[in-house]
Amino acid sequence: MSQQNLKTRPVPTRVAPDLIHEATPGLGWYTDNILFGEVWEDKALSKRDRSLVTITCLITRAYTGQLTGHFNRALNHGMTPTEIAEVITHLAFYAGWPPAMSAISVMQQVFASRNVGLDQVVQSTSADLALGQATVAQRAGAGGVTLAEYTRQVLEEDLWLRKELAIRDRSLVMIATLVAKGQLGALAARVEQGLDNGLLAQDLREALTHLAFYAGWVRVNAALAVVEPVLQRRA
Question: Is residue 140 predicted with pLDDT exceeding 90?
């Protein structure tokens, strides 16, 4: 579609703040017409999934200034308070503890503004984690716990098995965070895992198109070069 044709379309509801329209009117136009008027309205991917990959990208890259609006959108689009809290919990291991901790305070503010009590966040505390405290103490005395042990016992035998977020959604979160960080070495394997966990090829392609607007075209184009061969092979 040409730029001229885009300009003649009806203007959707304004989403970008007045400051954006005043300071950078071009960006304001793209935000209202393309990002929110077109991308977010594309039914090829559910708005819930769009919110899922968006908050994943924002948490991963520690863009807390944008999280208030997008946590609200996630709730509006059908994500539960528990699911949002679980995305943060999952990302603590893959994006790091600091961005996850920063996201929690924003989440609490959003929940409070919507009268969502923290009692609506129902998370297990992994009390039955395979690597118990006694074992940690014993191994620490013998040289510590290795990264491989933590990976197997904390991530693979606990985090990925938690029921607070569907395994299909965990895979989508995992792929989105790798793309957002530009860490492509593990991407092919995670795409394979995601397909095994119920993700559809169309879901992944649409999620990457969506992520281009939040992680940037360079990262997403690089990711597509890894993802497409996997999707073609599995077709």
Answer: no
pTM score: 0.90
% of the chain with per-residue pLDDT over 90? 76
The string of pLDDT tens digits covering residues 167-204 is 999 999 999 999 999 999 999 999 999 999 999 999 99
Q: Which residues of 82-117 are buried (b: 16+ CB within 10 A; e: fewer)?
A: ebbbbbbbbbbbbbeeebbebbeebbeebbeeeebe
Q: How many CB atoms lie within 10 A of CB 51?
A: 25
Alpha carbon distance 178, 219 (integer Å): 10
* The predicted structure's pLDDT at residue 93: 97
Determine contact, residues 165/87, Cβ cutoff 8 Å. yes
Give the per-residue pLDDT at 231: 97
Cβ partners under 8 Å of residue 22, min gap 6: none
Q: What's the chain look like in SS3? A: CCHHHHHCCCCCCCCCCHHHHHHCHHHHHHHHHHHHHHHCCCCCCCHHHHHHHHHHHHHHCCCHHHHHHHHHHHHHCCCCHHHHHHHHHHHHHHCCHHHHHHHHHHHHHHHHHCCCCHHHCCCCCCCCCCCCHHHHHHHHHCCCCCHHHHHHHHHHCCHHHCCCCCHHHHHHHHHHHHHHHCCCCCHHHHHHHHHHCCCCHHHHHHHHHHHHHHHCHHHHHHHHHHHHHHHHHHC
CB 14 within 8 A of CB 32: yes
Residue located via tokens 């795409």:
191
